[in-house]
Write a structure and sequence with these properties.
5 strands, 30% strand, 2 helices, two-stranded parallel ribbon, Protein_unknown_function_OB, three-stranded antiparallel beta sheet, alpha+beta, 25% helix, globular
Length: 71
């Protein structure tokens, strides 16, 4: 498991390396959820807070997640 902010920091430090490690892979992310939406494909999307108020970690779920709440 990785925190949303640690994931953000990994991409900020070296985007190419972070893409190889995390992009399009199942990753367990922990942190504060700032929004939950449904995309055009009907998938649940959660945005996680980071230390940069202008950046969120956007996570799309393949399957419907359990109890996911903002806050």
């Amino acid at each position: 498991m990785i925190t949303a902010d640690a994931l953000y920091q990994a991409f900020k430090a070296n985007e190419q390396t972070a893409n190889k490690q995390y992009l399009d892979k199942a990753v367990a992310v922990s942190g504060e959820v700032v929004s939950v939406t449904i995309n055009q494909d009907g998938k649940t999307v959660a945005d996680f807070k980071t230390s940069d108020s202008f950046v969120v970690i956007n996570c799309t779920f393949k399957e419907k997640p359990g109890d996911l709440k903002v806050g």
